[in-house]
Amino acid sequence: MKTLDSLDWIFIAVYFTVLVGIAVWIIKKKKSNTEDYFLAGRNVGWFVVGASIFASNIGSEHVVGLAGAGAGDKLPMLIYEIHAWLVLMLGWVFLPFYARSGVFTMPEFLEKRFDARSRWVLSVFSIIAYVLTKISVTIYAGGVVVSALLGIDFWTGAIATVVLTGLYTVLGGMRAVVYTETLQAIVLVIGAAALTIIGYNHVGGWSEIKATVGPEYLNMWRPATDPDFPWPSLLISSTIVGIWYWCTDQYIVQRALTAKNIKEGRRGTIFGALLKLLPVFLFLIPGIIALTLKMKGELHWNSPDEAFPVLMSNLLPSGLRGLVAAGLLAALMSSLASVFNSCSTLFTVDIYKKLRPNTPEKKLVRTGQIATIITVIIGIIWIPIMANISGVLYEYLQKVQTYVAPPIAAVFLLGIFYKRINGIGALVTLVLGLFVGFLRLGLELAKESMNVDGFFYKMADMNYLTFGAWFFLGCVILAVGISLVTAAPSKEKVINLTFGTLTDEAKSKNKGSYGIFDVVLSIIILVIVAGIMLFFNGK
Fold first, then answer.
1. Nearest by Cα to 45 from 264, 330, 326, 282
2. CA dist list (Å): 337 to 26, 175, 184, 507
3. What residues does 219 pair with on adjacent strands?
4. Which of these, 136, 258, 272, 318, could form a disulfide with 44 (CB 3.0-4.6 Å)?
5. 8 Å CB contact between 27 and 156
6. b/e map of 350-359 (b: 16 or more CB within 10 Å)?
7. Using CA atoms, how far apart are residues 422 and 451, in angstroms rounded to an integer?
């Protein structure tokens, strides 16, 4: 890999100067109340909402891992990148219920729809899951990227980035996060687009890529008998993970809740869905280009996760290389800032405020800041553990999410679409479902030492996508079954919180929150998603 030169460093310095300027400006303007600190005063426009959703999603593990999937014969993982239709689902289906209920967090919504027990389970679990997956994986991938790009020690790069990101997240809260993320999204898109175009031209176009790697390599739809990516299981499990991640997870939904009204929030999700189509072209295709150049003997890397940084350092000219490096740093920082703020919100609103309901607003904000600092420290402690991750990072992340998503997705989907689901059904599904998810993860790690004929070995050895599909079905049956044999939920637990109980006023407000432009753009996005699915069919 080539090292960065003076012009590259100038670009990186300019980026950080602008970023710090925005953060300082926001910190000076912020107010000392929870709505401003955790939801940016609920006064954000659609452009910032959409850019923030995109920037939150695209972390350094995403850039590194998705390019690695393209370079390492993992093209079926592309299906997670055409979830733009699920981002639309957040805006059109879920957001109106969240906004009407006036909640800060997803566990808070579960309390309104079910009871306080479901809120506690989801709050505690979400914080643990963020530390084990999002924070640790993002920091690990970020350390790899920073040390490779800047030529510094892994630990120095990782800790410096975590501390800097944590600083403006603690001081500025959600408002600082969403506005800095807007800048980061712009820098990342420009930088990665430049790399894709230059790499595409350098390799000789799509026909040359296809001729080198072979048409079958470019097929995202493997047979149902494929041991790694059977297409029915891939389609079902990726959709379940997508519903959980895009429509019910605090990490993403919190961005939509910052909007000034449902109309701006929905438009933000439509814009976010449009941006969500970009990673296919910005990260996956560069991975395929890197593989093509490696097969031609023009590039060399040891692990598929190195494909993007190596391609960037070898193909881009001075200055532009610095811009893309800044974009990668932006991806790392935006993801970290998002998860730091989400952890802080969940702890303060769902745990601390529930235990001490009379706490003044200023003290709640201070509690949120302390929670962010603790999250930063835990993230740093996790770095050496994550340094032992092997294989393609992106696939590792999707595996863990496949075990986490089914019970949560089942409870939220049924809670909104089926008014008969009650608090007991939701609670048992969450507790038992999350136990089974962690059991599968533990069994998978211990598989080598188990009896190959035993039940637990078979459970651990089942394809993770197939497991996810059956797991979700089991969660749905459990939630419905328990709810039907216990008392129906009270009227206040369902009115305006499910589709079957919307009042005329709520229906009227919802109809007035969108126009023909919103509908047409949403349809165009769905057509593009279908087009990408058909294009990558190996023919």
1. 264
2. 15, 11, 11, 36
3. 537
4. 258
5. no
6. bbbbeeeeee
7. 40
**Do the Cβ atoms of 385 and 450 come closer than 8 Å?**
no
**What is each CA distance from 299 to 175, 207, 307, 309, 522, in whole angstroms?**
42, 19, 9, 11, 40
**Which two three-digit tokens encode residue 159?**
């800790």
Each residue of 341-396: pLDDT tens digit?
778 888 888 888 888 888 887 888 888 888 878 877 877 776 666 555 444 555 66
Alpha helices (H) in 261-388, listed in sequence order: 262-276, 278-279, 285-295, 307-315, 320-345, 353-355, 361-386
pLDDT tens for 201-239 read 999 999 999 999 988 899 999 999 999 899 999 999 999
What the block records as the tokens of 269 is 């999700």
- Cα–Cα–Cα angle for 466, 467, 469, rounded to 5 degrees: 65
> Cβ-count burial of 487 within 10 angstroms (0-12 exposed, 13-18 middle, 19+ buried)?
exposed
CB 251 within 8 A of CB 342: yes
Neighbours of 514 (CB within 10 A): 17
Percent of the chain with pLDDT over 90: 37
- Cβ neighbours, 10 Å, residue 20: 14
- Residue that the structure tokens 């835990």 belong to: 378
Q: Which residues lie closer than 8 Å to 292 by C-beta, 6 or more apart?
A: 203, 208, 209, 212, 213
**DSSP codes joined into one string, 451-475:** -TTSHHHHHHHS-HHHHHHHHHHHH
Euclidean distance between CA atoms 63 and 78, whole angstroms: 13
- Token pair in block for residue 240: 């379940």
The tokens describing 424, both together, are: 């007991």
In a 3-state reduction of DSSP, which class is residue 2?
A: coil
Q: What DSSP element (H or E) covers 1? A: none
Residue whose C-alpha is closest to residue 324's, from 316, 334, 332, 335: 316
Domains of the chain: 6-535 (1.20.1730.10)
Rounded-to-10 torsion of CA 480, 482, 485, 491:
-70
> From the CB of residue 150, how many other CB atoms can be counted at a distance below 10 Å?
18
